[in-house]
Specification:
Number of domains: 3
Distance between the termini: 47 Å
Shape: flat
CATH architecture of the largest domain: Sandwich
CATH class of the largest domain: Mainly Beta
Structural class: alpha+beta
CATH topology of the largest domain: Immunoglobulin-like
Helix content: 10-25%
Number of strands: 18
């Protein structure tokens, strides 16, 4: 920033801003960015390139129906930086390389558990590393995100499959050719249907090509901590949205939640005062409140979630904390 100002941004579909020439491909989400003129000096875009030389990366800037290609001022292993004069849609793009069929991309494997009427369904996503988690969570509000170490490097346009250690589990589809997907819909790459009594599962993501068979992800998951509704315990649900909850709570809601926790005997007078008087900024108050309640266990966390749903229903839904009806 060149000066203090508000920056508002969101993601758009690349289809709204077609790339010309056709030798250019999206390399990240398309962002619609707005701020007062002259307030913004530089932008840094996360990328998912494995190549040691990222000189094929540029930023497409859309203005009045035209596309301007901006050369980066700096390229690191994780970001591309550009200088900007005005704001509108921006998106990271890459040139189509001659050997693009042999190209690897930094990727992530995301897992979401959903409770159906008689089954569990595990949704598995193979996505570029610069896809933001909460954008996928927005499309999976009826599911519980399963946190695990997820980063890997995947070959583009090569087939991948998923296997698990249970004979009666059904996996679909059989294979998927990995391509970069920047939304906005994010359908699951693979689905595994499991019996409701399954408590533990080992999942592998496998690539079998001319390079031979290679396992990219091999993880074991414990489902016993999830409720019959498919949701994690309340304290774990708070932990999963910790950062975004702190960002989203305002001073008025925090004050109301403190009063609620005092009335419900979750916090005592001294604890409430330590949040009100011991913390100076709103985010610190929010963090202190959530931390105190989480440490008191499942029942206390459930009470905080129930009151959050009353005090700020929009935030509660945005974070995916609301209970969904069973299919």
């Amino acid at each position: 920033m060149a000066a203090p100002a508000e920056v508002v941004y969101g993601t758009e579909q690349w289809e709204k801003c077609p790339l010309v020439p056709s030798s250019l491909l999206p390399a990240g989400p398309l962002y619609d960015i707005n701020s007062p003129s002259g307030a913004l000096e530089h932008l840094s875009f996360p990328h998912s390139e494995c190549s040691p030389v990222q000189n094929h990366l540029m930023v497409a800037h859309y203005k009045n129906g035209n596309v301007e290609l901006i050369k980066p001022t700096e390229v690191t292993e994780s970001h591309v930086k550009i200088k900007v004069n005005e704001t509108s849609p921006f998106g990271l793009v890459r040139r189509l390389l001659k050997n693009w069929l042999d190209y690897k991309s930094k990727a992530q494997v995301l897992l979401f558990l959903r409770q159906l009427s008689e089954k569990k369904k595990l949704n598995i996503f193979l996505l570029s590393s610069n896809v933001v988690l909460h954008e996928v969570q927005e499309k999976q509000k009826s599911c519980t995100f399963i946190e695990t170490s997820s980063h890997c490097d995947l070959w583009e346009n090569e087939p991948y499959s998923v296997s698990c250690d249970l004979e009666n589990a059904h996996v679909q589809p059989d294979t998927y050719d990995f391509v970069r997907d920047y939304g906005p819909n994010f359908p699951p790459t693979f689905e595994i249907f499991l019996n409701n009594d399954v408590k533990e599962l080992t999942v592998k993501v496998i690539n079998s090509t001319r390079r031979g068979k290679r396992i990219y992800i091999n993880r074991t998951f414990i489902f016993s901590g999830f409720s019959s509704s498919g949701q994690a315990p309340p304290d774990e649900r708070l932990k999963a949205v910790w950062t975004r909850l702190i960002e989203g709570l305002n001073a008025s809601v925090i004050q109301s939640l403190l009063d609620d926790m005092l009335d419900m005997n979750v916090l005592n007078d001294g604890e409430v005062e330590s949040v009100k008087e011991g913390q100076t900024c709103t985010k610190d108050k929010a963090s202190c409140l959530i931390d105190m309640v989480r440490k008191k266990g499942t029942s206390a966390s459930e009470k905080l979630l129930s009151k959050l749903a009353e005090r700020d229903p929009a935030l509660y839904i945005t974070l995916g904390l609301h209970r969904q009806s069973v299919d």
